[in-house]
Amino acid sequence: MSNTATITPRYDGEAGAEAAGEAAAAFVAAIASLAATLAATDAERAVIARCRAMARQDRLAGTRVDLRLAANGDLLGAATSLGFVDAGGHARVRLEAGRPVELTDKGGTAILLQRTGDRLAILSPGGAAVVDRVIARTVEQRAERHLTRVSGSKVIRRTLANGETELVAREALPGTGGAGRVAVRVGRGGVAHADISCVAGTRCEDMLKDMAEAIGGTVQNRGLKDDYYDDPSAAAALPHVRAGG
Q1: Which range of residues forms the domain containing residue 52?
Q2: Helices marked H in the chain — which ranges?
Q3: How confident is the model at residue 68 (pLDDT cuts 50, 70, 90)?
Q4: Angle at 237 between CA 236 and CA 243, to 5 degrees
Q5: Count: domains in the chain
């Protein structure tokens, strides 16, 4: 049996929301600046700090995407691998609930990462392209780590003509129905197109579930390939052909 599916780490219906405009950000910043000259008590200073935090977030939030990722270290690691560091030039920072982390790259592009409940959000004034790049790198790294584990470090990685990354691996230890083959193509914004083949029975569904959990996303657009209905032993002997996503 074999199947294909799309896996996304984004919350449904949230492909990025435009934050408050420059006028709103400027207004909040002005209020914070004015209040700073009048503050006399700790309570007033706390209000000023909150206003400044709001102004900082509005300045950075050109595009926002909320993710299902449970391990915030993966998002930070992906951003670091793309050259983003904190204001002090440190690549290793911690992302804690209620404490946003601002990172910038050598070109001055900024992103803001924050954790709220079971969500991780990434914001950037650089627009969707910047946000998508960090999310895609995160999904690539998580998918490759999973495939490395199941294949015994035998993962084929290549960059396609359209700029997408494709990862291909076969299970090192055959399970029920044979050694499954998994191909994952990571597209714009971290949407992954998974292709599972060469395995008998319904175990392809279990393999798809494992991949979705590894990526930190939900399965969408599940489909069955033609050889899903073929005899499993015959299907396992077929040449490896990547199905379209």
Answers
A1: 20-60
A2: 22-38, 42-60, 72-81, 128-151, 203-215, 232-237
A3: confident
A4: 65
A5: 2
